[in-house]
Amino acid sequence: MAVHVLAVLAYKEGDRVTSALLAGSVNTNPVIIRRLLLALQRAKLVETCKGAGLGSRLNRSPGRINLAEIYRAVENSEPFATPSRKPNAACPVGNCIRETLDRVFASAQEALERDLEKTTLAAVIGEVKAAGACGRKKVG
Predict the structure, then answer these.
(1) Domains of the chain, with CATH numbers?
(2) Whole-model pTM?
(3) CA angle, 62 then 60 then 10, to 5°
(4) Residue 76 pLDDT
(5) Which residues in the chain show pLDDT less than 50?
C-alpha cells in the first residue's frame, strides 16, 4: 500500500494530494492512509500539510527513493520470525533450531532489503506509465 501511495504522489509530480484521493486510488479508508502517511513522514519520504485543499507530496524525487526505504518505513514486524515459545532444550533439534533459523532468517531479510534497494520509486512509476494504466484513467 505504501508503494502505491508514493507512486500516486510521484505521478502527481509535486502537486499536493489529499488522503481522500489516495484512499480512492488504494480503495481503502482515508484514516488508514493518514496513518500510513505518518509513517512515511517519519521516514522523511513525504511532507504533509493539514487543512482543506492541502495534502501530501514526496519529500524528494522518486529517483532518490528506493523500495527498501519504503519497506523499512512501514514494516514493523519481522517477516521471518521464530515462535515466541521456547523449544524443548533437551531435544537435539529443539536445542539449536532457534539459532539456526535466526541465521537463515537474518540472511533472507538482508537479501530482501538488498533486492528492494535496487528498485527506485521512479522505476515503479515508469513501469506503471509504460503499461498505460495511468494513461487510460486520470489519477484523482
Answers:
(1) 1-65+120-140 (1.10.10.10), 77-119 (no CATH)
(2) 0.81
(3) 40
(4) 80
(5) none
What residues have CB less than 8 Å from 16, skipping those under 6 apart?
49, 54, 55, 56, 57
What pLDDT sits at residue 134? 52
Q: Which of 48, 50, 36, 52 is nearest to 3 (CA)?
A: 36
> Rounded to a whole number, what is the distance in angstroms from the first to the last CA of the chain?
17
pLDDT given for residue 140 in this prediction = 55
SS (H, E, C) the chain: CHHHHHHHHHHCCCCCECHHHHHHHHCCCHHHHHHHHHHHHHCCCEEEECCCCCEEEECCCHHHCEHHHHHHHHCCCCCCCCCCCCCCCCCCCCCCHHHHHHHHHHHHHHHHHHHHHCCEHHHHHHHHHHHCHHHHCCCC
Q: Using one digit for the tens of pLDDT, what is the confidence trace for 14-28?
A: 899 999 999 999 999
Cell of 17: 494530494
Measured distance CA(79)–CA(75) in Å, rounded: 9
What one-letter code names the amino acid at 90?
Answer: A
